[in-house]
Design a protein that fits this description.
Layout lengths: L8 E6 L4 E13 L6 E10 L5 E3 L5 H11 L3 E6 H13 L7 H14 L1 H6 L13 E7 L4 H12 L4 H18 L3 H14 L1
Antiparallel strand pairs: 1-2, 2-3, 3-4, 5-6
């Protein structure tokens, strides 16, 4: 992979002026193609004829990705304090720190969104005593696929409320990791937490 510097030149096709010619690499603010925001101060190739952004070098993609992900709205819910305690205990059970809680939740959200039968079973947890209580703790999650997986789970489970869905997932984690101590998810989560440590 070639690394470009500000001021370097390169040949490229420009769709604005319909020509193939010289471009010069410059730092620019560039809007996202979906119109959701702007990537600030990123290295891009600019057409020497019409001053349009023509290309994004591979080296700039991590910066674009980082800024795009910060634009994403988090999935949030307010939960009873004892449910947050369950998540904290579950992370300790797999040998991780409580900083791993968002990853634990994202793991379960992803796994359940991929397994319709398992996802349908989580509705039962909303009838348990642990699902009740004053919601005075906030849980905030961010992830590239998170919003779409949450929406898929809402359809599968018929749980329309995001907070109720998050409660049922926490109680599924409680059953799997703390009550039944299922070996498969514990082993997989230990491996993930070790990789992220």
């Amino acid at each position: 992979m070639k690394i470009f510097k500000v001021g370097d030149s390169h040949k490229a096709a420009c769709t604005t002026c319909q020509s193939f010619g010289d471009t010069t690499f410059q730092l620019r603010d560039v809007p996202f193609s979906d119109g959701s925001g702007i990537v600030k101060n990123v290295l891009v190739g600019v057409c020497d004829k019409c001053d349009s952004v023509v290309l994004l070098p591979h080296q700039s993609t991590p910066a674009v990705k980082r800024q795009y992900e910060t634009k994403r709205k988090p999935v949030e819910g307010r939960l009873p304090a004892h449910l947050i305690d369950i998540l904290n205990l579950a992370t300790i059970e797999i040998g991780a720190s409580i900083d791993f809680v968002p990853n634990l939740m994202k793991y379960y959200i992803h796994a359940l969104s991929e397994n319709e039968m398992a996802a349908k079973s989580i509705t039962q947890y909303l009838n348990s005593e642990l699902a009740k209580g004053r919601a005075d703790k906030r849980l905030s999650l961010k992830g590239r696929l998170l919003a779409s997986e949450i929406e898929r789970l809402k359809v599968i489970t018929d749980i329309a409320n995001t907070t109720d869905l998050l409660k049922s997932i926490v109680l599924k984690i409680n059953e799997d990791l703390l009550l039944k101590r299922k070996a498969a998810p514990i082993k997989e989560l230990r491996n993930i937490s070790a990789a992220l440590a």
